[in-house]
């Protein structure tokens, strides 16, 4: 068996076997197969595609290319949640404590943000002292004791995906459905959960701009997970406007706190309750989605989710006084209102651009080496469909660099559009697969 033969086979549209796929991945990780041959294979896959079994075997080979988290010492059915990324997406900060508060074991490996999408780890680290570098012993102990731990991906999880993604990024082979699905699911399978709930974003601020593409990706990932023996559910959610109102790390922590205390934005609350309901069913804490929904609403209303968040922050070394008094979280030197130049209904908010404005202010990283300012970002005052008078505030810019404010304001106004006639607001939940 040689890589040359496999490239020719795939180029001719033939399916690769399990043995051939594992040979390819193992050879690439061990550097026996060079980049130029793997690039040729990735391009052949883009043109010829992969069938269901090939995609599953590729995912498993990538998942087993490095460490596999052993969660066998964690009691109960472990449920993980993965989002494909968006603007203002602080869902894990709300959902994790909600699920843990009803006894669902949440053992989550989370990532950092890159570009216009934020990362759960960056948001949590805006809390003073909060540590996402946990030993395996501490990680498992926390999940058993308080049902939740969130750690950074410091282990050697799915190294084949890291190598392949870097290669695909520079060879024009990113946008192939099987390759996207296997990239996401290999990391999820390596993280060791029994069930995986997916939040697949669609819209301007998402990786998948169209509902059709989001649906195809969701189906592909659900199929992979089920073939690998996992309990799977995918929720397709709207990312045609930022989730909630806050964009920026400490600002999003504050909004997550408000939500856990029962005062959060409708869209964020609805998304967290929906995902949590499916987590409850997967973990066998509820028999039906409706029962799961009752559990999630109840834990928000009775304060258990909020208390679990405080317990979680304390367990990972965070300063609980900051979350009990959010005004003590990092705050920006300049908080500047941006006023509406006209009266009308909000017709559109270019979501990806909102994320990029937060990046301009210092709230994200353009490269892995970039240093994030946890205090900066944007807080919107209006959602799509809402009416606003000329001169009223559209949003507040939070900045520590005064010289960046003018460009940020100009770009925010350009990202906003108005309508003279009413605009129907979109539902946060598009489909469930």
Number of distinct beta strands? 13
CATH evolutionary superfamily of the largest domain: Nucleoside phosphorylase/phosphoribosyltransferase catalytic domain
- The low-confidence parts are none
User: How many helical elements?
Assistant: 17
Mean pLDDT: 94
How is the quaternary structure best described? single chain
* Proportion in helices: 40-55%
What fold name goes in the CATH topology slot of the largest domain?
A: Pyrimidine Nucleoside Phosphorylase, Chain A, domain 2
Catalytic activity: thymidine + phosphate = 2-deoxy-alpha-D-ribose 1-phosphate + thymine; uridine + phosphate = alpha-D-ribose 1-phosphate + uracil; 2'-deoxyuridine + phosphate = 2-deoxy-alpha-D-ribose 1-phosphate + uracil
EC number: 2.4.2.2
Family: Belongs to the thymidine/pyrimidine-nucleoside phosphorylase family.
Protein name: Pyrimidine-nucleoside phosphorylase
């Amino acid at each position: 068996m040689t890589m040359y033969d496999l490239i020719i086979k795939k180029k001719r549209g033939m399916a690769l076997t399990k043995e051939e796929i594992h040979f390819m991945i193992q050879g690439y990780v061990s550097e026996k197969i060079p980049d130029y041959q793997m690039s040729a294979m990735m391009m052949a896959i883009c043109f010829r595609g992969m069938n269901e079994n090939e995609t599953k075997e590729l995912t498993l080979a990538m998942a087993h290319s490095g460490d596999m988290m052993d969660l066998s010492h964690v009691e109960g059915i472990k449920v993980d949640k993965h989002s494909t990324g968006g603007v203002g997406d602080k869902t894990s900060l709300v959902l994790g404590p909600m699920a843990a508060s009803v006894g669902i074991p949440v053992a989550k490996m989370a990532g950092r943000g890159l570009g216009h999408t934020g990362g759960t780890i960056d948001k949590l680290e805006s809390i003073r002292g909060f540590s996402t570098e946990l030993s395996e012993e501490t990680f498992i102990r926390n999940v058993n004791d308080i049902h939740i731990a969130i750690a950074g991906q410091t282990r050697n999880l799915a190294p084949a995906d890291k190598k392949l993604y870097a290669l695909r990024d520079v060879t024009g082979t990113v946008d192939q459905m099987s390759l996207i699905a296997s990239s996401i699911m290999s990391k999820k399978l390596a993280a060791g959960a029994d069930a995986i709930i997916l939040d697949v974003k669609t819209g301007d601020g998402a990786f998948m701009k169209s509902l059709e593409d989001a649906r195809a990706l969701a189906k592909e990932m659900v199929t992979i997970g089920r073939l690998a023996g996992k309990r799977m559910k995918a929720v397709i959610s709207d990312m045609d406007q930022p989730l909630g109102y806050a964009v920026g790390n400490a600002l999003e922590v504050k909004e997550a706190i408000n939500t856990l205390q029962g005062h959060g934005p409708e869209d964020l609350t609805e998304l967290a309750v929906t995902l949590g309901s499916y987590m409850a069913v997967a973990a066998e804490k509820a028999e039906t989605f409706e029962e799961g929904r009752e559990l999630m609403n109840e834990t928000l209303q009775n304060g258990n989710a909020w208390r679990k968040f405080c317990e979680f922050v304390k367990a990972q070394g965070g300063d609980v006084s900051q979350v009990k008094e959010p005004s003590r979280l990092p705050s920006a030197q300049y908080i500047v209102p941006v006023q509406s130049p006209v009266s009308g209904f909000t017709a559109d908010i270019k979501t990806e651009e909102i994320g990029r404005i937060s990046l301009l202010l210092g709230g994200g990283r353009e490269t892995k080496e970039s240093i994030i300012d946890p205090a900066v970002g944007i807080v919107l005052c209006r959602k799509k469909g809402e009416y606003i008078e000329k001169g009223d505030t559209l949003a507040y810019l939070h900045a520590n660099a005064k010289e960046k404010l003018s460009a940020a304001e100009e770009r925010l106004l350009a990202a906003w559009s108005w309508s003279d006639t009413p605009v129907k607001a979109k539902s946060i939940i598009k489909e469930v697969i």
